[in-house]
Amino acid sequence: MKNVYYYPNSKRTSSVVVNPYIEDLMFELSKNYRIINADYPSNSGMFQFFGFLRRTDYLVLNWIEDLPDKKFGRLQVLAFILQIYLLHAIGGKVVWILHNKLSHYPKHLEIKRRLQKLLARKSDYVITHCKEGLTYLESIEPRFRAKVLVVQHPVKDYPVIAEKNKEYDLLIWGSLLKYKGIDKFLEYLYKHQLDEKYRILVIGKTRNDDYAREIERFKNSNITVRNEFVDILKLRHFVALSKFTLFVYEDNSVLSSGALMDSIGFHSNIIGPQKGAFRDLAEVGVINAYEKFEDIISLLDANGMEDEQKTLEIILRFNKLNTWEKMGSVLHKFLNEQGSDKICHCHPLEK
């Protein structure tokens, strides 16, 4: 069994919310690989990797573009570059999971761009969850050397909650972050005198008090804003009470979204931007995609509830084909395949 060093390995405590993707992928990898840092959270970032480097067959990287923002970030980046060369010198492989075109956070952008360009050149394998990820990889390094796997982000399927009486036209949920552009959509509603036409629930947590105030200024009798963490059970009920779940994501850096996949697992009728994984999923009928805010209004006014059963059937089929277990199997095959194909696609609904 080959050894995997997995980054980041998050600290698990009752007070810390761990990104589910990190946990789920690590669990699937552990079925075929030995996660050598499984019991060692990445408290010291990539500095910790020096202690495991000699034993590593695969270095698996998630959100590594955010490394410059970490404590001693510039030093960590320099250490990381050295580690890539040392790992290759002893026969190890770099596996880069490309989640976004660029970090959502604006600090150190030039360093982050250079880091991604280096990864495009030096990674042995790249995994991306949408076709646009491949296009982006080609744009930053046309002569990239890695083998690339384009595979849908896995879904956890939850029991269907049936609720005929809808309390909301739109549900917007998830961390309330500036790059998502929720304020831009709410501002659009007010500008076009639509702020009292639709019943909207915005719910999620933000640590930015200024942005919280910016969102809350749009509250009225029809628009509810709740700056709070919501657990999965409550969230599933809010989804069942809503005609649509909306993702705005005005920032062009987004490729894939865990919140999007959770919403599919909740069987949401989803509206999302015509970009990244949203575009791919719209092409196979799993979600609705929009180019401009006017398209969202058209979908709301068309109601769309008559197609709800058809959409649910497509989602249930998609969820059945697109499990975390299948992701683990596909990834294991990809890392061990001896074939000459440089680009591998795995989009279940297209087969």
Task: Explain what this protein looks like in three dimensions.
The protein is α/β, with parallel strands linked by helices. The chain has 2 domains: 3-154 and 323-350, Glycogen Phosphorylase B (Rossmann fold, 3-Layer(aba) Sandwich), CATH 3.40.50.2000; 168-321, 3-Layer(aba) Sandwich (Rossmann fold), CATH 3.40.50. It is 37% helix and 17% strand. Strands 2-1-3-4-5-6-13 form a 7-stranded parallel sheet, with helices on both faces. A 6-stranded parallel sheet has the order 9-8-7-10-11-12, sandwiched between helices. Strand 11, helix 9 and strand 12 (288-290) form a beta-alpha-beta unit. Helix 1 crosses helix 12 (324-336). The protein starts with a strand and ends in a 5-residue tail after the last strand. The mean pLDDT is 92.
Largest β sheet strand count, sense and barrel closure: 7 strands, parallel
Q: What level of helicity do the residues show?
A: 25-40%
Series of H and E elements:
EHEEHEHEHEEHEHEHEHEHEHHHE
Query: What general outline do the C-alpha atoms trace?
Result: globular
Q: What is the count of helical runs?
A: 12
Task: Tell me the count of domains.
Answer: 2
- Tell me the quaternary state: single chain
Unreliable sequence segments: none
Query: Strand order of the main beta sheet, please?
Result: 2-1-3-4-5-6-13
**Roughly what fraction of the amino acids lie in strands?**
15-25%
CATH class of the largest domain: Alpha Beta
Question: Can you give the mean pLDDT?
Answer: 92
**Separation of the first and last Cα atoms:** 31 Å
* Secondary-structure class: alpha/beta
CATH topology of the largest domain: Rossmann fold
- CATH homologous superfamily classification of the largest domain: Glycogen Phosphorylase B
Instruction: Tell me which CATH architecture of the largest domain applies here.
Output: 3-Layer(aba) Sandwich
Strand tally is 13
